[in-house]
Design a protein that fits this description.
It is a single chain. The chain is built from 6 helices and 3 strands. By secondary structure, it is mainly alpha-helical. Strands 1-2-3 form a 3-stranded antiparallel β-sheet.
Length: 134
């Protein structure tokens, strides 16, 4: 991916867009592998991060792992998945991301194209660099 595309995504993906992606993910996209953070996990949020995601897939609660994400982590994952040469997700999820990008305006991307499954893969790529679940 070119630095130009990454910088364009960073500029176009507003804080509200990032929040929309996180909200969509937390209301259905990641709920099959992520668990509600405890008070202690929330308290560990570094000052340079905004989101607490706990990897605790059903049956693997003993391997519970806390991840902290920034808005820029989500922006980078979105940019990776927007790349026409990406090989991380299938054509359906990639298509939703491309459509959200194509229909952007002065308020950012059209997050209405980001469904729960697409938000899920964006969060997974932000955390793991790959799609690990689903």
């Amino acid at each position: 991916m070119t630095a130009t595309l990454t910088s364009r995504v960073t500029e176009a993906l507003t804080d509200d867009n990032v929040q929309d992606i996180i909200d969509i993910a937390s209301y259905g996209g990641i709920t099959y592998w992520a668990d509600e953070p405890t008070a202690a996990e929330f308290a560990g949020l570094p000052v340079d991060k905004e989101y607490t995601i706990v990897d605790a897939a059903e049956g693997f609660e003993a391997d519970r792992e806390t991840h902290y994400l920034s808005k820029d982590d989500i922006r980078r994952a979105y940019a990776l998945l927007l790349d026409l040469n990406q090989e991380l997700v299938n054509r359906e999820y990639h298509g939703y991301i491309v459509q959200s990008w194509l229909e952007r305006d002065w308020q950012g991307i059209d997050a209405g194209h980001i469904d729960a499954g697409t938000a899920d893969v964006i969060v997974q790529v932000a955390i793991f660099g790959v799609v690990r679940f689903g």
